[in-house]
Amino acid sequence: MEIQRESMDVDVLIVGAGPAGLAAAIHLTDLIETARGNGTLKGVAASDEFTMMIIEKSAEVGDHMLSGAVLDPIGLDELIPDWKDREPPISDPVKSETMYYLTGKGRFRVPYTPPAMNNHGCYIVSLNQLVKWLARIGEQKGIEAFTGMSGRTTIIENGSFKGIVTDDKGLDKDGHQKGNFEPGMELRSRITILAEGPRGSLTKEAVKRLGMDSGRNPQNYLTGVKELWEIPAGRIKRGTIYHTMGYPLGTSQYGGSWIYAMSDELLSIGLASALNYRDPRFDPHGAFQDFKTHPWIKSLLDGGKMIKYGAKTISEGGYFAVPQLFHDGLLLVGECAGFLNSMRLKGIHLALKTGMMAAETAFEALQKDDYTAKTLSGYHSRFRKSWVFKEMWQVRNFHQGFAKGMIGGIFHTGAQMITGGRGFKARLMATEDHLHMKKLTEMPSARLPIQRKFDGILTFDKLTDVYASGTRHEENQPPHLHVADTDTCLNVCTEEYGNPCLNFCPASVYEMVEDEGGGNRRLQINASNCIHCKTCDIADPYGIITWVPPEGGGGPVYSQM
Ligand code: SF4
Q: What is the distance between the alpha carbons of residues 353 and 20, in angstroms, rounded to a whole number?
């Protein structure tokens, strides 16, 4: 039955109240107020009817925000010049940093790290707390995010972006309407700013339907798995950061770890692993648990307690994977547009700045009452003139250089450093991550299962970690993981790859179960475990898993993460 939906017109719609979306909202509000103050405000924004709306899928702003994180304050300095006077949740600057290469049992200090990776002047932060603080600043300016509301699909008419349809609420798991059913509404906007974070579902749809990735490299990703640990005081000084390469990833897979002392007793620790791996048994959560068993890491965590868990994907493809940034009625900002410095593994500062540049472009469009791609292309021009472009251009070939492993990547990086980011070729191409996975016939060793034991003190199974993520979903709702063809899972993937979804999901969402008596093997999707990392949407070798937001409000609660 066709659902009757209400339609609402908004002037500016922002999807996602993360750093990019909030920066866009705050900066646009500031620009409007400044123009109002000096008498230059005109057009739509001058009207009392002007509406800017920001929607967020989590129940509270910041709940789904997770990052390492070390913040380069350059973006914050521009967005909120007096941020230090506004009680930010940012305490200590980075005081010391060291990079180690880990062998199975030992470590050695990497004697040289590229200057671009230097974190001098940066701050250890919790992205969750930073975003909550940004939202409070926004509230002081009259900006309120509508939480628990997600975008289900895009509205594209005659090749122009016209808005989105929000999620239906109150459907049961079979799609039938429950007593509390509320249909999603059409939000029709003059300009939509998508700020969904990595692998945004609306961004993916819009980019594909509007051909905005034509001629670009496909986006490549890492999955970062993180825990927060309370440790005995005095073991590691606040402001200390360590990065590692090597164990447990070895030389064939790009990735590394972070260990950040958020206070004398609080450690952010995680492992980011590239999703262009070959072995279908690779398990980002399991690799992270292995990492913690390294004698040095174990000694840091000994006597401590894991208090939080989470995972997210990281858009690592770099400059050449950034899609066209604008279309009629549409702007893309932050990590859903691929804004992440792949060498520094940092994107918060780029999210803030791209949000600001999108706000300036939206302001110009509102003043002119013109929302066509021609006017919105001003965003691209701003990007090209900004420090965001300079920073991303310097590392434009970085991630692609690691396509064949760490050793080749280090050579590429060396060449790129002495040629201003170029390296051996003007543009290194890339392929989608899942195409790198080997079939069991090509990698017979992958038929042998990897057995891990978790002690519940230092290492944890996925379900224990999922509990620590705080994830919650309404159980009786349609699954938000769409597997296009489960016959492929049962009859093809089992044989060809051994069902890698059982491994790559860091939350045990996918399970192969047999009915009682051993008959009828089937794929069971434990959707309520999902922590919204999007790994399955990327790493599935057949590309048949699609992640969409669940009924608004569901998902992890990443306090302090
Ligand atoms: Fe991540 Fe997909 Fe697993 Fe959810 S189902 S936790 S998005 S891999």
A: 8
